[in-house]
Design goal:
Length: 658
């Protein structure tokens, strides 16, 4: 393990292997037409407009509709689909016959013209700067730091410590490396990957489309599935870490137990332990970054008699591969995103499966949830310049920004407590229809599976029909009477039935509200972070907090999203902000920056107030989004654009520079 420093780029580890390369398009007409059938048409139309520079591609083309209710292909009907395919075919044929000449550099008026095909005219100005950044149509990594320590402050000793080599820690390390800032990552396990390393339960996969759930700067990975399984995600993060040469800067098997701010240097001293718990040499860093995540400490419920159970038990995030479930009677507690992924697989192995549901999840119909990336889509990705960028943009625009309006609370809503406004109610209707169809006339199952709270006030569960089918099996029971206690033989329900089990699996989620636990953090004047928070974690932009200078949180309080987007997008914004902050310190020749309390408090007031205008804040249903004080401490109440805007530049006045 070494510290990465200003010579990091000289190692040759620049992630080039993860950059996308486009191959020449030489396919014949018939083959080309077949590939287009797998395209997401709004994205392909935009790519073709860019490629051909022919206004006819978009002129009079069907305008796509975005959002959950629109359906695939921007809501096009059959005639519109045929029309759009014909336009794309013509443009790609011309591109091929013209010798695959790379398109000229995009001008802003052109981009505006193309974007006006999908974005309302009145919102274009607001989105343009963001889209220029996100789309990076000139093929460069637009978000890479535009400064370097060697130029800015060559003689400063400025070292960064990152806790965690998961998605966030890796992202921070890459940007620090690009800026020539020395860093070390402390990772308690023996692998990179964070949650994708910890969660190995059967069926574990991502529930955000991979082409969006991926780093903007590492798009050269061929995702085999639209929503890839855990081993693929772990492979992606390992390859990113390897591609950027991060491994040699990671101290595996090392846990940061305590971090103490040093008033004299404005830096942090870290107390470390090895895997066997022995204390290691302390480490001094000028700045501390937490990439510890929210969803990594299992939440074990407090159910009477848990210790009495005679058989094996384990939590979904600590899956015990040594327990063979074949032919066993298995009880699963919980029906959240994790449990709903492993339940169908466990049902295939067990002789009997009893699933204990406290609150039904809303199922989000996703027909292609388990499907491989269609071959045509893969081919277009490889052969049509900028299709990948436009596809990623279209995912962002249609499924991320496009869903926020469905969770808005209408203050005048009189439609009852099971929805929060007319659009939310429309979604409720759509999801209910899906449940009715998926339960195939089984009224009892439909009743059990129908949630009685507004859609999206809890995290939805993606479904391609497998969950209702599993619950309908003869050897599977969906138990909704509630758990009275656990005993030696299994689970006693509140209505007095003894359900016998050989194994109990807890799919009971994580202690997400306990940010940065169990790390002890001591800031200015000896203030202890967990005392300050008192179970109610807050931060400015989810990143910094008063009295704890030079401590930067990634995936911190109120940076989680429910319906709209990918956590990787948020992390990239947070890391941009981190780099902007370091640049400020180096330019100003300062040691540390401490967030101004009034700025922090006013920000949190806005967040709290606006979260109450969203389904997850207004609804009374219990969720992991709310902490023990009932405050939504996880979620960001706005769109992605808003977070990008707020984290784009560091406002020096928001900080006391030390
Ligand atoms: P979760 O959503 O918090 O679900 C926990 C489940 O356990 C809920 O059904 C909960 O019931 C139940 N539960 C908790 N305590 C209980 C008790 N004492 N008695 C009975 N039931 C109890 O946890 P998760 O499924 O692990 O998912 C957490 C988050 O991780 C997700 O929301 C998602 O953001 C992320 N995740 C993502 C993926 C993915 O990308 N595919 C996969 C897994 C997880 P209540 O609903 O009544 O509280």
């Amino acid at each position: 393990m070494t510290e990465s420093g200003s010579n990091a780029s000289s190692t040759g580890s620049n992630g080039a292997a993860l950059k996308r390369a486009v191959l020449p398009l030489t396919a014949d007409d018939e083959f080309l037409a077949r590939q287009i059938e797998d395209a997401d048409l709004p994205a392909l139309l935009l790519a073709c407009a860019m490629l051909s520079r022919d206004p006819a591609v978009l002129d009079g083309a069907p305008r796509p509709v975005r959002g959950l209710l629109a359906g695939p292909n921007g809501g096009y009907d059959e005639t519109q689909i045929a029309d759009a395919r014909a336009r794309c075919f013509e443009a790609l044929k011309n591109y091929r016959d013209g010798g695959c000449v790379a398109p000229a550099r995009t001008t802003q008026p052109e981009l505006r013209e193309w974007l006006s095909f999908v974005i309302e005219e009145e919102r274009l100005d607001e989105f343009m700067p963001f889209l220029l950044d996100e789309l990076s149509l000139d093929g460069t990594d637009t978000r890479a730091p535009k400064w370097n320590k060697a130029e800015l402050a060559p003689d400063r000793d400025f070292k960064v410590a990152i806790i965690g080599a998961g998605m966030s820690g890796i992202c921070a390390a890459i940007r620090l490396q690009q800026a020539g800032i020395p860093f070390v990552i402390f990772e308690k396990s023996q692998s990179v990957g964070g949650t994708w390393h910890d969660n190995v339960y059967p069926g574990c996969r991502v529930d955000v489309s991979n082409h969006f759930y991926s780093y903007s700067f590492a798009q050269g990975f061929e995702w085999p599935f639209l929503f890839s399984p855990q081993p693929v995600l772990l492979d992606y993060f390992r390859r990113v870490a390897d591609g950027f040469g991060l491994k040699e800067h990671i101290r595996f098997g090392t846990e940061v137990k305590r971090a103490v701010f040093d008033e004299a240097t404005g830096g942090w001293t870290l107390e470390l332990t090895g895997e066997d718990g022995t204390a290691l040499e302390p480490f001094d860093a000028q700045l501390l970054v937490s990439g510890m995540g929210q969803l990594n400490r299992p939440n074990m419920p407090d159910i009477e008699g848990m210790d009495e159970f005679a058989g094996p038990t384990f939590h979904s995030a600590r899956w015990d591969k040594g327990v063979d479930l074949t032919g066993k009677r298995v009880a699963v507690i919980g029906t959240g995103a994790s449990a709903c992924q492993f339940i169908p697989i466990v049902a295939d192995q067990a002789s009997e499966l009893a699933v204990f549901q406290r609150t039904a999840p809303w199922l989000l119909p996703t027909e292609n949830y388990h499907e491989e990336v269609p071959s045509g889509l893969q081919w277009l990705y490889q052969h049509v310049p900028f299709y990948a960028e436009w596809y990623r943009f279209w995912l962002f625009w249609s499924t991320a920004e496009g869903l926020l309006e469905t969770v808005e609370v209408d203050p005048n809503w009189t439609g009852g407590p099971e929805s929060v406004g007319p659009l939310n109610n429309e979604v409720r209707g759509m999801l209910t229809e899906y449940l009715k169809a998926a339960t195939g006339g089984d009224a009892d199952l439909l009743e059990k599976m129908t949630p009685h709270y507004p859609p999206f006030s809890k995290r939805f569960v993606r479904d391609n029909g497998i969950l209702p089918r599993t619950f309908a099996r003869e050897d599977v029971s969906l138990e909704t009477a509630g758990i009275e206690r656990i005993n030696e033989k299994g689970i006693l329900t509140k209505d007095g039935r003894q359900i016998e089990a050989d194994v109990i699996i807890y799919g009971t989620g994580f202690t997400a509200s306990e940010f940065l636990m169990p790390l002890e953090v001591v800031g200015r004047d000896g203030r202890k972070l967990h005392d300050e928070w008192n179970g109610d974690a807050r931060a400015y932009l989810g990143i910094t907090l008063p009295h704890f200078p030079n401590l930067f949180l990634l995936y911190g309080p109120n940076t989680n999203i429910v319906v709209n987007g990918s956590i990787i997008f948020f992390t990239e914004c947070e890391v941009d902000y981190l780099l902007g902050s370091i640049e400020l310190l180096l330019r100003e020749g300062k040691n540390a920056m401490d967030c101004q309390k009034p700025v922090h408090d006013a920000y949190n007031e806005r967040i709290d107030s606006d979260n109450m205008k969203r389904a997850w804040g207004a609804a009374t249903v219990s969720t992991w989004y709310k902490n023990q004080h009932g405050r939504v401490s996880q979620n960001w109440p706005y769109g992605l654009l808003e977070y990008w805007k707020q984290t784009r530049e560091v406002e020096p006045g928001d900080y006391e520079l030390l």
